[in-house]
Amino acid sequence: MERATGSGRRRVAEALWATIVREGVGGVSVRAVAAEAGVTGGTVQYYFRTRAEMLRYAMELIAERVERRLSAMPRSGPAREWTRAILLELLPLDAERHHEFSVWLAFSAYAGTDPALADLKRRTAARQRELYRHLIRARRASAEHPETGSRAISDAVEEAEAAILHAVVDGLALHLADLGIDEAAALGPHLLDHHLARSIDAPRTPEGFRPEG
């Protein structure tokens, strides 16, 4: 019974995602989600007592889905390859990720009206920031040039660089979401590689600045 309930809640949440993509968060109602899921309004209300509860669960589910996928990705072999693969996974480069990103963007905009959603958004951002720090460390540790990876940088510099990478990935995702899937898939990796080469992989001093010359 518990498994059936979980499956039913996920089905309703996925119907809510589709409703958001089509109509925005404002178009979410028990009736609209029930119609999208092919169930009755009573079924939706059985799983979720309120619209707010349904929205919170759906936002949590999409965050968990992305995090599970990232956690399952390999973290062995050349660091520049697996760190790049993880970063690309965060970009809307195929239909599924474009759908997820569109839904998450709508949730993020709506989070200001719901403290629980706002808290989930903050917690997700904090986990992403730690992921970016981990990826930066991995790329630096395996850098081809000794001066890039062997000199320690301060926590403050590392946090600043993670914040910049976070902003770049978020901004790139926003840009790519406005393109067609094929165009995004072709352009996204190129732009990401350009940023990594110039801002992460380039030789730096211990304080995080590039040497002159």
UniProtKB/TrEMBL annotation:
Residues 29-48 bind DNA. The keyword Lipoprotein does not apply. Keywords: DNA-binding, Repressor, Transcription, Transcription regulation. Pfam families: TetR_C_6, TetR_N. Residues 6-66 form the HTH tetR-type domain. GO terms for molecular function: DNA-binding transcription factor activity; transcription cis-regulatory region binding. InterPro entries: BetI_C, Homeodomain-like_sf, HTH-type_TetR-like_transc_reg, HTH_TetR, Tet_transcr_reg_TetR-rel_C_sf. The keyword DNA-binding applies. Coiled coil: none annotated. PANTHER family: HTH-TYPE TRANSCRIPTIONAL REGULATOR BETI (PTHR30055:SF234), HTH-TYPE TRANSCRIPTIONAL REGULATOR RUTR (PTHR30055). This is TetR family transcriptional regulator. The lineage of its organism: Bacteria, Bacillati, Actinomycetota, Actinomycetes, Streptosporangiales.
